[in-house]
Design a protein that fits this description.
Length: 360
């Protein structure tokens, strides 16, 4: 399932995918879906091969017919939702005929829908509108199950078990805990940023939440205690660097061992979750342009980086290679660069969160 949002909301678009493996002797690869800043969603099967080399096989793009502003992909990839064409969220199949499954129209009478998020179980879709708040919908029927009256929410994300929903309210991270199916109640607020939050990522165990804002660095919260750790970009010599600019994106690896965060100026910095200390940095190609969003494949083998000019795939390898700084094995390095002549830019991205069969 693919969920898409309207470009008029002036927010980054998304990319998502499915990971490569073998299930019961059937070759399965992660589907990567990328909003392009136009009406088109690009689709690729991504397969990490030996020596850390990644191959991306393109599929015919999905043309939604309306300019996009946000997207999310169902955990196993059979459908995606897109915020498109005004105050609506449209849900499409990614397999077969890629038909439109449903259209969700949030209750906001004036403002356009800003963003969307699909639960990890694939049964819920959350939408956010600036003047109304967050609404949670059944992904099967399109029925509105609950409403959270928080009008300033711009981005949100379900925890790994869907037991918590994190919503960014300006500089504050609001945490909502599940009361019943499709119903969430506010439990705590996490503070630490001085400017508006841009992105977030849950650790797989739901204990830690990382976020970025209109600031040079990132924060990691212990959700229960509220304790924060500030992350600085790696300077290539083992220390922290006073980076300028905005840390646009952050993503915990599904393996739970590392965290990636990045800026246009500094590239992608890799942090050890065990110590919350920087390990190394990966520079983006000179042609990449502005860095918008990060997303790991379900196995934690490939990190996709959405940039203005292209999608950059970083793959884990047994040796330090490419543009990475650091020592030791199992490092990430630039493997593949995806470009699309139909795309004016790739503004965001995300992988599907479970293994699934490739599209037909």
């Amino acid at each position: 399932l693919l969920l898409c949002c309207d470009r008029a909301a002036r927010l980054p678009c998304c990319i998502q995918g499915r990971s490569a493996s073998r299930l019961g002797g059937v070759n399965t690869m992660p589907l990567l879906a990328a909003c392009t800043g136009t009406t088109v969603v690009g689709l690729w099967d991504v397969d990490q091969q030996e020596e850390g080399h990644t191959v991306a096989v393109p599929h015919p793009p999905l043309d939604v017919g309306r300019t996009l502003s946000d997207m999310d992909l169902a955990p196993s990839g059979p459908f995606l939702s897109v915020v498109s064409g005004g105050n609506r969220v449209e849900v499409f199949e990614t397999d077969g005929d890629r038909k439109r499954l449903m259209t969700i129209v949030p209750s906001s009478p004036v403002q356009r829908c800003h963003s969307c998020a699909i639960s990890n179980a694939g049964d819920l879709i959350a939408t956010a509108a600036a003047d109304f708040g967050v609404q949670i919908w059944s992904a099967e029927t399109g029925e509105c199950l609950s409403t959270i009256p928080m009008p300033q929410i711009r981005t949100m994300m379900f925890s790994g078990d869907d037991g918590q929903l994190a919503c960014a309210d300006g500089r504050v991270m609001r945490i909502f805990s599940r009361v019943s199916h499709g119903n969430y109640a506010k439990t705590r607020a996490l503070r630490g940023h001085r400017r508006r939050v841009l992105g977030m990522s849950w650790h797989p165990d739901g204990v830690l939440l990382a976020s970025t804002a209109l600031e040079p660095n990132a924060l990691v919260y212990d959700v229960e205690s509220g304790q924060t750790t500030e992350l600085h970009h790696f300077d290539g010599a083992g220390g922290a660097e006073g980076a300028t600019g905005v840390t646009q994106a952050v993503a915990f690896c599904p393996r739970g061992d590392v965290l990636a965060f990045g800026t246009t100026q500094m590239g992608v910095t890799i942090v050890s979750v065990a110590t919350l200390e920087n390990t190394y940095r990966v520079a983006m190609p000179a042609t990449a342009g502005r860095l918008w969003q990060l997303s790991w494949d379900p196995l934690g083998a490939t990190l996709a980086v959405a940039c203005t000019g292209e999608v950059v795939l970083l793959s884990r390898s047994s040796a330090d290679g490419g543009d990475s700084d650091g020592e030791g094995g199992d490092l990430l390095a630039v493997s593949t660069v995806l470009r699309d002549v139909m795309a004016t830019s790739f503004l965001s991205l995300a992988f599907a969160r479970e293994l699934a069969l490739p599209p037909k």
